[in-house]
Every structure is written in C-alpha cells, then in structure tokens.
Design goal:
213 residues; alpha/beta; Rossmann fold; DNA polymerase, domain 1; five-stranded parallel sheet; two-stranded antiparallel ribbon; 13% strand; globular
Length: 213
C-alpha cells in the first residue's frame, strides 16, 4: 500500500512501540515457578481461544487464570501466577513519552492495542504515578481490545478506528511491531509501517517529525 507525505493521523500500537515489554523476562519468571518449557506451552495455549477471549473481554480474570493454569498443567496461587504473568511488563521510557507529546503537536494521535485488563491496570497506574496524568489523554482516541470486544489483526478493528474518527487512507498511517497486525491493517485499507524488533519509534521521523516514507 502506497504511503504519502500528507499524513495527519498516526495510529500507534502500545507494547513494543510505546511501552517496553520483554518476552525473555516472561519465560524466566515462569521457569522460576518450575515451568521450564513455558515458551512452548504458551505458544500452544495462544492457539486456543483463551488469549483472544481475554483480550476481547469475553472472559473475566478468574476464568483466564483457570484457563492458563489448565494449559500450563501447573497449580499456583493467584499472586504467584499474576507476578509471573505481569513480568512481561518492563515500563515506560521518558524519551518515548516526550516524543508522543511532540508528535501530538503535529499529528492527530490514536492508540490501537491488544491487551487485557490485568496488564492495563498496571501500566495505566504506573503512568499516573510517574507522570501525574492519564496516559489515554495523550490520544484523541485510545482503542484497547478488551474494552471494544475485538482485536488485531481482525480487519474490523482497523475499520472501526477509521470510521469513528473519519480517517482516510490518504492521510493516515498505523505503526505496529507485529507483522501480522500490519498485514491486517493493509487488508482493512489502512496504510501501515512495521516497526521492526529493536527499532525505536523515533527512527521513523526526521528532525522535523516528518515521517520517513
């Protein structure tokens, strides 16, 4: 899909683009609980409806915990499970938040994230504690999968963002660090840029905050 230099609207992913996450920490945290093959088990579980249902708000926290334990084949108390589950969350970085604040002066910013209520509570509170205001206020619209009942890469979620905000393909770009989510955006008619692993959001812009297309 051809990108133009007339971009006015940026739709950004959260984890891996704005917020730092670590799958390695996730794996180590479960290994400390005795789940040595967490990566394999997690991958198998991810193929089930469990994670999609949780990220779309179709099941509650207790149902998710029970389902995850069943897939892992282990039994832990809720506190230990949550500690391991939340270990993937690393934190915000000042330079990225500063970049968002600068981008908001030039672009209409929107957020589009697959996430769940357990993680959402943690990083939104972390943001308030650290910066003193609501993270969602950085955006004209913040779309969290568990709140709207759909998730990437389903085409309907991109269409929803475009429809509700009157966005067009001519002046909108979506940024995500997951290739399949980029493909989903393209299928929905939303131009998209893949932020490759290890690359920073800021590298997509020049000194005048113009997208490098």
């Amino acid at each position: 899909m051809k990108l133009t230099n007339d971009v006015r609207n940026l739709v950004l992913d959260f984890g891996g683009v704005i917020y730092t996450i670590s799958h390695a920490r996730h794996k180590k945290a479960f290994a400390r609980l005795g789940v040595e093959n967490f990566g394999q088990l997690y991958s198998q579980a991810a193929q089930s409806p469990l994670f999609a249902d949780f990220e779309c708000g179709r099941i509650n926290e207790e149902e998710f915990r029970s389902g995850l334990l069943e897939h892992l084949g282990y039994r832990f108390d809720a506190e230990k499970l949550d500690t391991a589950w939340n270990s993937i969350l690393v934190g915000f970085e000042d330079r990225r938040i500063g970049l968002l604040q600068q981008l908001a002066k030039k672009y209409n910013l929107y957020l589009l994230s697959n996430t769940n209520i357990i993680h959402y509570r943690i990083y939104t509170q972390e943001f308030v504690d650290r910066y003193g205001f609501d993270f969602n206020s950085l955006f004209l619209g913040a779309y969290w999968s568990f709140k709207i009942g759909m998730r990437k890469p389903d085409t309907e979620i991109y269409k929803l963002v475009m429809r509700e905000n009157g966005l067009s393909a001519q002046d909108t770009v979506f940024v995500d660090d997951t290739r399949q989510n980029i493909d989903g955006a393209h299928k929905a008619g939303m131009p998209a840029l893949w932020l490759e692993p290890g690359r920073e959001l800021g590298t997509l812009f020049d000194g005048e905050l113009k997208l490098k297309l």
